[in-house]
Automatic annotation (TrEMBL):
GO CC annotation: ribonucleoprotein complex; ribosome
Function in brief: One of the early assembly proteins it binds 23S rRNA. One of the proteins that surrounds the polypeptide exit tunnel on the outside of the ribosome. Forms the main docking site for trigger factor binding to the ribosome.
MF-aspect GO terms: rRNA binding; structural constituent of ribosome
Family: Belongs to the universal ribosomal protein uL23 family.
Protein name: Large ribosomal subunit protein uL23
Gene (UniProt): rplW
InterPro entries documented for this protein: Nucleotide-bd_a/b_plait_sf, Ribosomal_uL23-like, Ribosomal_uL23/eL15/eS24_sf
One GO process term, biological-process aspect: translation
Presence of the UniProt keyword Oxidoreductase in the record: no
Matching Gene3D superfamilies: 3.30.70.330
Pfam families listed in its UniProt record: Ribosomal_L23
Record note on quaternary structure: Part of the 50S ribosomal subunit. Contacts protein L29, and trigger factor when it is bound to the ribosome.
UniProt organism field: Parapedobacter composti
Keywords: Ribonucleoprotein, Ribosomal protein, RNA-binding, rRNA-binding
Amino acid sequence: MPSNMEIIKKPVLTEKASLLTEKLNRYAFKVDPKANKIQIKQAIEQMFGVTVVAVNTMVVAGKAKNRYTKAGFVSGRTPKYKKAIITIKDGETIDFYSTI
């Protein structure tokens, strides 16, 4: 079984994710694509010492990107990744900046 640091890659710090945090006590993380909800829940509880109520996962598809270079027109894709939305118990918080 992979370690917690391998399962949880990094938090998603976007405007949409911060609105979820303020209103619904939910946090978003990029996670290992092979990790399941049980492994994600255990990793979050061990890393941050909070009680996880629910875990929702989604696979975010990569965007198609195009650019024009000296070599001509280059097209490609950004990589896909798995995102987990974690709902934690009311009254508890996760401070991302305390571990820096």
